[in-house]
């Protein structure tokens, strides 16, 4: 009888061990299907958004760009404001809006890579600035005036904040600041001054004559908000009459504001002008 008792005891021990090692029934979903933590999906915070001036007539966009020229001074407002940061050639930004030659951009905070900053940066930070001509610099000592390089000519322009401060045939636009020696400023890149429009609006008599000669049944089509087109992604090309802008859109070539949509301006773009 002793062997039988020992066998029975051994069997009971094996059964108990088997129960202890058996996996328990799952009472929760596997960890693989659990929701991701908030920190893994959270977008970078824009640290100074509440301090940046916004304008009703700024044109919205979402275009990646790279700084190509310094000084690239980001400000809280355009054309004058508090300093946000100074960017270097090669720094990446995203253009969120445009107004009178200035872009509202976001970029990585130079002092905190986990945070974004935003502010206004002039358009000349994104293009190679032309060499100023060797000409006699005009006198510019009046209050509210500034020497700027307007195209290929150094002029003394009236400083402005928006179009309402300029005449009917002028608009407030940013241009590179020049010093009394005819050289670019080393401290601030640009200033907005009253700039003659590319093509003045037709006079009332000319408009009346055009209306009289038009067919009675013909009705003027309203201008579109924008004339930009999509890019042919197969070969990164644009149709005739358009140029590739920032590798994200096809911008229409133009000679004046009349060629562009209501949310665009005819501006310098490489070797010509385009609507954006």
How would you describe what is shown here?
This protein has 276 residues and is mainly beta. Among the domains are: 45-126, Roll (SH3 type barrels); 145-196, no CATH class; 224-275, no CATH class. The chain contains three helices and 15 strands. The strands form six sheets. A five-stranded mixed β-sheet has the order 1-7-6-5-2, with no helix packed on it. A two-stranded antiparallel ribbon has the order 3-4. A hairpin with a 7-residue loop joins strand 3 and strand 4. Residues 205-218 have low confidence and may be disordered.
Per DSSP E runs of 2 or more residues, the count of β-strands stands at 15
Uncertain residue segments? 205-218
Task: State the helical fraction.
Answer: 10-25%
* SS strand fraction: 25-35%
In DSSP terms (H or I, runs of 4 or more residues), the helix count works out at: 3
**What about the largest sheet?**
5 strands, mixed
| CATH C-level of the domain at 45-126 | Mainly Beta
- Give average pLDDT, whole number: 77
Strand numbers in spatial order across the main sheet: 1-7-6-5-2
Shape: globular
In the CATH classification, which architecture of the domain at 45-126 applies? Roll
Topology order in helix (H) and strand (E) letters: HHEEEEEEEEEEEHEEEE
Radius of gyration, taken over Cα atoms and rounded to an integer in Å: 32 Å
Roughly how many Å apart are the termini?
A: 102 Å
């Amino acid at each position: 009888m002793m062997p039988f008792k020992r066998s029975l005891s051994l069997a009971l021990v094996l059964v108990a061990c088997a129960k202890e090692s058996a996996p328990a029934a799952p009472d929760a979903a596997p960890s693989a299907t659990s929701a991701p933590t908030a920190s893994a999906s959270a977008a970078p915070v824009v640290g100074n958004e509440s301090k940046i001036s916004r304008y009703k007539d700024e044109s919205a966009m979402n275009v990646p760009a790279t700084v190509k020229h310094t000084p690239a001074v980001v400000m809280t407002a355009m054309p004058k404001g508090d300093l946000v940061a100074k960017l270097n050639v090669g720094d990446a930004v995203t253009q969120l809006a445009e107004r009178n030659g200035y872009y509202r951009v976001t970029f990585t905070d130079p002092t905190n890579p986990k945070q974004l900053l935003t502010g206004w940066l002039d358009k000349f930070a994104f293009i190679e600035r032309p060499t100023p001509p060797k000409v006699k610099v005009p006198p510019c000592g009046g209050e509210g005036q500034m020497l700027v390089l307007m195209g290929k000519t150094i002029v003394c322009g009236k400083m402005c904040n928006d179009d309402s401060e300029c005449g009917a045939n002028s608009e407030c636009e940013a241009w590179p600041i020049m010093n009394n020696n005819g050289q670019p400023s080393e401290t601030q890149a640009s200033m907005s001054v009253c700039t003659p429009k590319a093509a003045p609006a037709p006079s009332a008599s000319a408009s009346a004559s055009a209306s009289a000669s038009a067919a009675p049944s013909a009705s003027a089509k309203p201008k579109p908000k924008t004339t930009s087109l999509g890019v042919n992604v197969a070969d990164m090309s644009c149709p005739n009459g358009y140029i590739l802008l920032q590798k994200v859109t096809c911008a229409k070539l133009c000679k004046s504001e009349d060629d562009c949509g209501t949310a665009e301006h005819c501006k310098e773009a490489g070797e010509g002008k385009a609507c954006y």
